[in-house]
Amino acid sequence: MAQRVTLRKRTPYNTTSNRRRVVKTPGGKLVYHHIRKLASSPKCGDCGTALPGIPALRPRQYATISKRQKTVNRAYGGSRCGDCTKQRILRAFLVEEAKIVKRVIKTQQQAAKRK
């Protein structure tokens, strides 16, 4: 008959935070090892893809690693992926260019009315 295994934590319920695996110790005894939840990698806020260069950790573990490991060295690093950053910068540039063009056209029309 199989050996009985006793719980190590107080909660007996089969919840996601209380998953366990039966492990045989070097002494031949069977014990429960509680399994941590899997970490999901941080996602881009615009397109939702996983951010490369940032480790997938549980939320509390980000407090223990340095800022250098939590970000990428560019604008929106650690928040947006490279492609979305490129799109944002390009969009901002084109909006500013459109404002300048609008202003130039307006001054040309005013100059034409004065003549």
TrEMBL record:
<dbReference type="GO" id="GO:1990904">
    <property type="term" value="C:ribonucleoprotein complex"/>
</dbReference>
<keyword id="KW-0687">Ribonucleoprotein</keyword>
<protein>
    <recommendedName>
        <fullName>Large ribosomal subunit protein eL34</fullName>
    </recommendedName>
</protein>
<dbReference type="InterPro" id="IPR047868">
    <property type="entry name" value="Ribosomal_L34e_arc-type"/>
</dbReference>
<dbReference type="GO" id="GO:0006412">
    <property type="term" value="P:translation"/>
</dbReference>
<dbReference type="GO" id="GO:0005840">
    <property type="term" value="C:ribosome"/>
</dbReference>
<keyword id="KW-0689">Ribosomal protein</keyword>
<dbReference type="GO" id="GO:0003735">
    <property type="term" value="F:structural constituent of ribosome"/>
</dbReference>
<dbReference type="InterPro" id="IPR018065">
    <property type="entry name" value="Ribosomal_eL34_CS"/>
</dbReference>
<dbReference type="Pfam" id="PF01199">
    <property type="entry name" value="Ribosomal_L34e"/>
</dbReference>
<dbReference type="InterPro" id="IPR008195">
    <property type="entry name" value="Ribosomal_eL34"/>
</dbReference>
<comment type="similarity">
    <text>Belongs to the eukaryotic ribosomal protein eL34 family.</text>
</comment>
<dbReference type="InterPro" id="IPR038562">
    <property type="entry name" value="Ribosomal_eL34_C_sf"/>
</dbReference>
